[in-house]
Every structure is written in structure tokens, then in C-alpha cells.
Design goal:
This protein is 21% helix and 42% strand. The strands form two sheets. The chain has a seven-stranded antiparallel sheet with strand order 1-8-9-2-7-5-4. Strands 3-6 form a two-stranded antiparallel sheet. The chain is of the alpha+beta class. It has one domain: Small Protein B, Chain: A, CATH 2.40.280.10.
């Protein structure tokens, strides 16, 4: 019998430390991320930057924008584009709930960390409100 994925089962690849400083995190959510093979290999090597990335709604789907995953050194022709928009995998009702909160209250969706759980890449998203300076 397999146990449920806890904090111990996560292998963190990157954390967005500036997001916790710049924003107040109201709610947290885990999402899958759609990647190509060379992106997964670069993620496992820890070559990712979440500094200015955010999530954006397009046509009823949620995309991770401005997340820089470095190109994989050992891939020649079939390498990926480092800053392409990557689709986040969430249920429809989760996307609708996030979208209404973003539209109504002026929140934004920021990636807080990227990690692996049982071989699958996951993104911890935070529904954030900007801190007043």
C-alpha cells in the first residue's frame, strides 16, 4: 500500500523566495506542469529560475509565463525554448475558482516552488496579493 505524498516525498528543484517577500500569499494550490523531455532533464539538474514568473489565463486554461528553464546541454536539435509558456494542469473547477478570485479581488497567481513527486513535476501556486510599501 502506497502512502500519500507528503512534504517528505517532495524533491524541491526551485523556490521563489522573492514571491514571499513581495506578495502576501492568500491561498496555495498544487498543479501539474506540461513539459517536453529536455525540460524535465533540465529541471532535474536544477537549472530553472522562477524570479519574475507568473500564471496567466488563456482560453479557459492556465499557463506559466516567464519561467526560465535552461536548455539541456546534451540535446542538440530537439532542445526547447527556455522561456516558453507552459500549460499548468488543473481541474476545470480549480481554474474557474482561481479566475474569479483574480478578476474580483485583484489577486495574482505566482509560482512559489517547483518540485518532483513520484517522478512527476509539480508547481506550487500561490494566490497572492501585493504588499503595500
Amino acid at each position: 500500500m502506497k502512502k500519500k505524498a507528503d512534504e517528505d516525498d517532495r524533491r524541491f528543484v526551485a523556490r521563489n523566495k522573492k514571491a514571499r517577500f513581495r506578495y502576501e500569499v492568500v491561498d496555495r494550490l498544487e498543479a501539474g506542469i506540461s513539459l517536453v523531455g529536455t525540460e524535465v532533464k533540465s529541471l532535474r539538474a536544477g537549472r530553472v529560475a522562477l524570479l519574475d514568473s507568473f500564471a496567466k489565463f488563456r482560453g479557459g486554461e492556465l499557463y506559466l509565463v516567464n519561467c526560465h528553464i535552461a536548455t539541456y546541454d546534451h540535446a542538440h536539435r530537439d532542445n526547447h525554448e527556455p522561456t516558453r509558456a507552459r500549460k499548468l494542469l488543473l481541474r476545470k473547477r480549480e481554474i474557474r475558482r482561481l479566475k474569479t478570485k483574480v478578476e474580483e479581488r485583484g489577486h495574482t497567481v505566482i509560482p512559489l516552488s517547483i518540485y518532483f513527486v513520484r517522478g512527476l513535476a509539480k508547481v506550487e501556486l500561490g494566490l497572492c496579493r501585493g504588499k503595500r510599501s
